[in-house]
Specification:
It is a single chain. With about 260 residues, the protein is mainly alpha-helical. It folds into 2 domains: about 10-130, no CATH class; about 135-259, CBS-domain (Roll). Helices cover about 50% and strands about 10% of the residues. Helix 1 (about 10-30) runs antiparallel to helix 2 (about 35-50), helix 2 crosses helix 3 (about 55-65) and helix 3 (about 55-65) packs antiparallel against helix 5. The longest helix is centred in the middle third of the chain and has 23 residues, at about 105-125. This is CBS domain-containing protein.
Length: about 260
Amino acid sequence: MTEQVHLALETTFYFRDLFRNARAIAQKDSESFDEILFSLERFGYFLSKLKDGNLGKYFTSISDIANNSSLADYIPNKHPSYHTQFKDLYDSVKDGRNDAMHHGAYARHLTDHAVQVALIIEDALMTGKDRLSDYMVRNVIQASLWQPLSFVRQQMLSNSFSYIPFLNENDEWSFLCDRDIAKYINQNSKNWRKEKLANTVKQAINDLPNKLNFDDAISCKPDNSIGEVLELMKEKPLIVTDTNDKTKIIGIITAFDLL
């Protein structure tokens, strides 16, 4: 068995996020894989220190990391109809790197392979990580009681959120849900929608008899294990609070983040 290659935590998370963000860009545009190529080149240079390197020369260093993931070799060997070997995916991306025909079906094919390469590297980087703080999303966007509901709606739509956390009047963390906001602002009255969107969150949740409903949030700590987190998790995300101050949010985690 190949010995696993390990990186410093800060380096691991930096490159994980680099590939994750590049993959998100590629998935929004089926013909865009340049960001993943940039990430591969940056990763390869960091690992090999070859200033005149290219994707071909970087393969050995990158594959040493990729092999930490079962998706690189083990799973493709067991299910070749569903998964492609990392080397074959990498070679496809490498060969397409300098190809001039980066459009149409060919570009979409390369983008698909680049996304798979990124997924394998992300999985490899996170192999063996078992603390919530390793997976949670930091810099959490949150709502406040004094903000207009129109702004909260804008934040949710801009970021494709179904839930957004806020600290309620009892200093407990809660969630505003897209379903509940939609129900609150969409009624039959002619001026209802504009009036309700103009309400602050505090006004909306106290707006009887048609108040805006909200859900209680479940909180956890950054040092919780993934097993503990999965036991707590239901259909909603989990709030990660500061160990010494439960009113301070430092992260958020969903089941999607743990896939």
